C-alpha cells in the first residue's frame, strides 16, 4: 500500500485538476475554455496531422542544439568560475545579470541579428539555459570539500584525472539537478522564441492558434508540451537518483 | 580583505567595460550590421532621450505598476500556499513532477484566454505575472522552512513558546534569508510574465513600446527602451540582493 501511495496521490492531483478544468469549462463555455474530452480529441488530431511531425522536429532540433550548447558552454564556464577566483569575480556578476534580465526583451535584437528561423530560436533557448547551468556548476565546484582535493594532490592525480575521478563524481548530482532545471527553462526559451520569431515549430502553432482565437488547439498543444516535459523529467529524476548514488558522501 | 573586496568590484567592471568597448568598436567599424545593432554610446543617447519622453515614462510606469501588483500577489499567495502545503509530505512528493513541468509550459499563452475571461487591460497581464511567479515563492517557502534547524523548534518548546510565537519568533526569522531569495526569483518571474504579455497583445507598457518601435523600424528608440528596461530590472535585482545579504548577515550575527 505504501508503495502505491505516490501513485494514488498523483492520481488524486490529476483528478482535482480535471475537476477544476471541467468547472472552468462549464462556467466559461466551450469557446473560451474547451473541456478535457474535446481538448484530448484535438490533441490526438494534432498528433495525427501530417504537418505535426515537421513542427515537432523543428522544435526538437532547436531545443537539442540550444540545450547542447548551454551544457557545453555552461560546463566550461561554470568549471572555470568554480576553480578560478579571478574568473569568478570577472564573470559571475555578468552571468547573474543575464539570469536576472527578461530575455524576452531581446527578441527584437535576436530577430534583427538572426532573422526568422532556427538560429533565433536556438539563441533564445541558449540565453535561457546557459546562466542556470553555469551558476549551478560554478557553485558546486566552488564548494567541493577541500579534503577531496587534498587527497587527489597527495596521491599525485593529474589535473584531468582529478576532474574525471573526483570533481565530476562529486558534482554529478547537482549538475543533473541543474540540467533538469535548464531542460525546462531552455525549452521554455525555445518555445517563447517560436511564439515571436519563427515560421515553424510548436510555438509557431501555438501563436497561430492564439491568432485564430482557437482555444482548443492552444490548450491541446500546451497539454502535449506539458506531457512531453513531465515524461522527460521523470527520466531525468531516475538519472538523478543514480547520479546521487554514484557520488561520494558530502 | 579590503583589497580582495575592491578587486571583486573592479574586475567585473573592467570586463564589462571591455565588452562594451569592443561592441562600440565593432559597430563603428561596421563589423556588425548597424541596422541590427547600434553602438552602445548611441543606445545611451537613445536612453537619455527616452527618459525625457513622457510617453516612455508613462509606459514604464504602467509596467512597473503591473510588476509590483503581480509580485505582491504572487509572493503573498505563494508564501501562504507554501505554509499550507508544508506539513503534507505525501502531497508535496506527488506535486513535485507538476512543479518541474510548470516552468517549461509557456504560461504567456494563457494571456489571450484571460483576455476573454476578464477583458483587456492590466488584469490579464498581472494574472500572467502572478502565474509565473507564484510557484517560485511556493517552492522557496517549502525549502526555507525545511531548512530551519530542527534544534530551534525544540528550544522553543523547551521555553514553552506557543505555536504562533514559535512560528513568528523562531521559524520565520530563521527562514527569512531563503524566503527573501524566493522573493527575488518571484519578482524576476513576474517581470518576465508582465513583459512577455505586453509583447504579445497589450496596448500599453514598456514591452508593448519595444514591440511597437521594432514594428515601426525605430531601431534607436527600441534600443533606448530595451536599455531602460534592462537597467531598471538590474537595479531592482541589485536592491533585492543587497536586502538578501543584509538579512543573511543579520541572521549570522544572531547565531554568533
Low-confidence stretches of chain A: none
Structure summary, number of beta strands of chain B: 0
How many runs of DSSP E, i.e. beta strands of chain A? 0
The biggest sheet of chain B, with number of strands, parallel, antiparallel or mixed sense and barrel status, is:
none
- Rg of chain B, please? 22 Å
Number of helices of chain B: 10
In oligomeric terms, what are we looking at?
Answer: heterodimer
Task: Count interface residues per chain for the largest interface.
Answer: A-B, 58 and 52 residues
Describe how the helices and strands are arranged.
The complex is a heterodimer of chains A (250) and B (256).
Chain A (H helix, E strand, L loop, with lengths): L4 H24 L7 H13 L3 H32 L1 H16 L6 H8 L3 H25 L3 H9 L4 H39 L4 H10 L3 H32 L4
Helix pairs in contact in A: 2-10, 3-4, 3-6, 3-8, 3-9, 4-6, 5-6, 6-8, 8-9, 8-10, 9-10
Chain B lengths: L1 H27 L11 H12 L2 H32 L3 H14 L8 H8 L3 H25 L4 H8 L4 H38 L5 H10 L3 H37 L1
Give a written overview of the molecule:
Helix content of chain A is 83%, strand content 0%. Chain A is an all-alpha fold and 250 residues long. Chain B has ten helices and no strands. Chain B has helices at residues 2-28, 40-51, 54-85, 89-102, 111-118, 122-146, 151-158, 163-200, 206-215, 219-255. Chain B is globular, with a radius of gyration of 22 Å. The two termini of chain B are 21 Å apart. The model of chain B has no long low-confidence stretch (mean pLDDT 86). The chains are: A mainly alpha (250), B mainly alpha (256). Chains A and B meet through helix 1, helix 4, helix 5, helix 8 and helix 9 of A and helix 1, helix 4, helix 5, helix 8 and helix 9 of B.
Amino acid at each position: 500500500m505504501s508503495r502505491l501511495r505516490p501513485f494514488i496521490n498523483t492520481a488524486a492531483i490529476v483528478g482535482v485538476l480535471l475537476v477544476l478544468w471541467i468547472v472552468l469549462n462549464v462556467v466559461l463555455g466551450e469557446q473560451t475554455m474547451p473541456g478535457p474530452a474535446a481538448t484530448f480529441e484535438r490533441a490526438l488530431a494534432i498528433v495525427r496531422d501530417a504537418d505535426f511531425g515537421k513542427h515537432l522536429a523543428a522544435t526538437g532540433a532547436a531545443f537539442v542544439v540550444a540545450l547542447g550548447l548551454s551544457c557545453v558552454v555552461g560546463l566550461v564556464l561554470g568549471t572555470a568560475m568554480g576553480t578560478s577566483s579571478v574568473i569568478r569575480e570577472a564573470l559571475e556578476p555578468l552571468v547573474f545579470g543575464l539570469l536576472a534580465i527578461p530575455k524576452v526583451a531581446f527578441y527584437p535584437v535576436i530577430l534583427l541579428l538572426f532573422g526568422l528561423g532556427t538560429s533565433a530560436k536556438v539563441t533564445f533557448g541558449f540565453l535561457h539555459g546557459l546562466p542556470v547551468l553555469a551558476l549551478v556548476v560554478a557553485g558546486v565546484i566552488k564548494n567541493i570539500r577541500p579534503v577531496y582535493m587534498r587527497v587527489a594532490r597527495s596521491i599525485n592525480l593529474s589535473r584531468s584525472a582529478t576532474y574525471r575521478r573526483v570533481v565530476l563524481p562529486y558534482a554529478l548530482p547537482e549538475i543533473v539537478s541543474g540540467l533538469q532545471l535548464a531542460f525546462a527553462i531552455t525549452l521554455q526559451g525555445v518555445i517563447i522564441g517560436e511564439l515571436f520569431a519563427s515560421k515553424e515549430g510548436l510555438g509557431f502553432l501555438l501563436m497561430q492558434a492564439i491568432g485564430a482565437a482557437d482555444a482548443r488547439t492552444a490548450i491541446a498543444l500546451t497539454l502535449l508540451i506539458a506531457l512531453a516535459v513531465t515524461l522527460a523529467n521523470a527520466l531525468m529524476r531516475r538519472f538523478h537518483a543514480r547520479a546521487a548514488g554514484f557520488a561520494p558522501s558530502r | 580583505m579590503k583589497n580582495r573586496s575592491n578587486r571583486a568590484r573592479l574586475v567585473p567592471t573592467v570586463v564589462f567595460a571591455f565588452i562594451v568597448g569592443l561592441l562600440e568598436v565593432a559597430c563603428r567599424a561596421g563589423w556588425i550590421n548597424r541596422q541590427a545593432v547600434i553602438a552602445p554610446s548611441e543606445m545611451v543617447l537613445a536612453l537619455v532621450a527616452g527618459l525625457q519622453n513622457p510617453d516612455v515614462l508613462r509606459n514604464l510606469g504602467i509596467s512597473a505598476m503591473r510588476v509590483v501588483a503581480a509580485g505582491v500577489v504572487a509572493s503573498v499567495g505563494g508564501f501562504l500556499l507554501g505554509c499550507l502545503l508544508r506539513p503534507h509530505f505525501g502531497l508535496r512528493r506527488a506535486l513535485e513532477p507538476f512543479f518541474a513541468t510548470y516552468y517549461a509550459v509557456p504560461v504567456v499563452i494563457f494571456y489571450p484566454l484571460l483576455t476573454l475571461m476578464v477583458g483587456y487591460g492590466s488584469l490579464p497581464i498581472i494574472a500572467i505575472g502572478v502565474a509565473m511567479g507564484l510557484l517560485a515563492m511556493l517552492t522557496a517557502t517549502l525549502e526555507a522552512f525545511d531548512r530551519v534547524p530542527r534544534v530551534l523548534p525544540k528550544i522553543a518548546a523547551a521555553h514553552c513558546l506557543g505555536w504562533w510565537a514559535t512560528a513568528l519568533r523562531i521559524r520565520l526569522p530563521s527562514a527569512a534569508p531563503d524566503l527573501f531569495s524566493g522573493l527575488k526569483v518571484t519578482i524576476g518571474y513576474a517581470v518576465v510574465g508582465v513583459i512577455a504579455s505586453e509583447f504579445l497583445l497589450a496596448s500599453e507598457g514598456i514591452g508593448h513600446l519595444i514591440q511597437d518601435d521594432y514594428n515601426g523600424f525605430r531601431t534607436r528608440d527600441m534600443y533606448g527602451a530595451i536599455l531602460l528596461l534592462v537597467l531598471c530590472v538590474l537595479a531592482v535585482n541589485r536592491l533585492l540582493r543587497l536586502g538578501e545579504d543584509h538579512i543573511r548577515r543579520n541572521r549570522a550575527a544572531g547565531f554568533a
